[in-house]
Amino acid sequence: MPKYEEEDYLWLSGIQHYEFCPRQWALIHIENLWNENYLTASGRLFHKKVHDKTQYEKRGNIIIVRALKISSANLGLSGECDVVEFHKDKNGIKLKNFNEKYIPYPIEFKRGNGHAILSDEMQLCAQAMCLEEMLCCDIPKGALFYGEPKRRKVIEFSQELRNKVANTVFEMHKLFKKLYTPKPIYKNHCRACSMQDFCLPKISKQKSVKEYIKEVLLNEEIT
Ligand code: SF4
């Protein structure tokens, strides 16, 4: 029995926003505000290059599929994998139009210096959990590919990481259902946040962003 209906699915990519800051996630995914800084712009262009390539190719014992759409009724998520490699393995699954069996191996492309952060690992693990549900298989690991050192970091999908993904996504659904945007908590990471112009973390502790903007517009009309 699926846990979520399709209309309730959230964007899988929101996991990294939520892990960075639940308020940032809510501003983007509930209030539909978006702001782009250098980090998000270069990350977006980096991903565009990945997704612009042809959809699939076979290299030896590996089939490479790009921009694969994924979803999970159990998690209530949908999204897209940058790349999924299918590695030939007798314990894997049969794929349409291929005789051998394969195990999926998701790869997520990231800007950065190769130090995996938890939000990247969670996003990749969520992709694996979607693929497992869609293809009825087990996926033990995948990889993060970092653009600056051009290196892969293998990520094992431990039970602990899977639980962290499931609990985080559950919290995201709870907030989304209530359309609730958490109040800001000013921390060092706010300086690198693409949403700080909307968030106003130092002054909007007591007000929602919508309330604040309404108040500013009202004041401008009066003066
Ligand atoms: S500015 Fe700080 S509190 Fe506001 S959304 Fe960004 S990280 Fe969160």
The number of domains: 1
Q: Ends: how far apart? A: 58 Å
Helix/strand-derived class? alpha/beta
The number of helices is 7
Number of strands: 7
Computed Rg: 20 Å
What's the level 1 CATH class? Alpha Beta
Kindly report the average pLDDT value.
87
Main β-sheet description? 7 strands, mixed
Q: Which stretches of 5+ consecutive residues score pLDDT under 50?
A: none
CATH architectural arrangement: Alpha-Beta Complex
Q: State the shape.
A: elongated
Bound molecules: iron/sulfur cluster
Beta content comes to 25-35%
Features:
single chain, 7 strands, Lambda Exonuclease, Chain A, binds iron/sulfur cluster, 223 residues, alpha/beta, elongated
What is shown here, in short?
The protein is α/β, with parallel strands linked by helices and 223 residues long.
Task: Give a verbal description of the structure.
With 223 residues, this protein is of the alpha/beta class. The chain has a single domain, classed as Lambda Exonuclease, Chain A (Alpha-Beta Complex). It is built from seven helices and seven strands. The protein has helices at residues 14-20, 22-29, 38-51, 118-135, 159-178, 196-199, 209-222; strands spanning 10-11, 56-59, 62-72, 77-94, 101-110, 141-146, 151-156. A hairpin with a 4-residue loop joins strand 6 (141-146) and strand 7. The structure holds iron/sulfur cluster.
